[in-house]
Each structure stands twice: as structure tokens, then as C-alpha cells.
């Protein structure tokens, strides 16, 4: 299992604590220091069953600078969104847990963290 975190995020710290309390084996990826590639984002989105705009933090200042709220959300728009996430990892919703069984979740609440344990 791997968890993508921003250590400054309280939801990330909470998810890590829950994993620790459960005795789960996992790897931490500080995705701001080690940003995912476009291919890694594609793979995670496939596992999540989501589109890139579904995991984008549109309230971030860089999102406003890029004008993300006005971007299209059609299949042909996916590459542009993925490039934005890869180029600006702060835009990626967190934490994301990729489980060993091939599933993945955006673990913003305790119930979702429990679902991968």
C-alpha cells in the first residue's frame, strides 16, 4: 500500500495515524517532493475510477492562475488536466491511498481510510 501525502495536511496526518494504529504496512510518498508523472497519474485515476478534474484542488492559487474552473471536462480535455496535475502537484487532492489489491481511494475521511484496511 502507498499513501500520497502532504505532511502539512491534517487529513493526511489523520490517515497516516489510522494506518499506523491498524498496523498496516505502507509506503509514504510525499508527492510535493516526489511528484507523480503523467503516466502515474493516469494509472492512479484508472484505479480510482475518476477523472483528473475529480481529484483537482480548484481552490488552490495555482488553479486560479491557470483558470482551471473554465477548463473543459470532456475526454479530449484529460491530457491538459493531467499535465496540470503533473506540473503542479499542489493541485492533487490528498491523501490518495493505493491498496495492494489494485484499488485506490481519496482518503479524506476515516471511513474511506478504513475501507482499504
TrEMBL record:
Keywords, A to Z, come to: Oxidoreductase
Domain of life, per the record? Bacteria
Q: To which protein family does this belong?
A: Belongs to the ArsC family.
Q: Known Pfam families for this protein? A: ArsC
Q: Give this protein's Gene Ontology molecular function annotations.
A: arsenate reductase (glutaredoxin) activity
Protein name per UniProt: Arsenate reductase
Q: Which organism is it from?
A: Amycolatopsis mediterranei (strain S699)
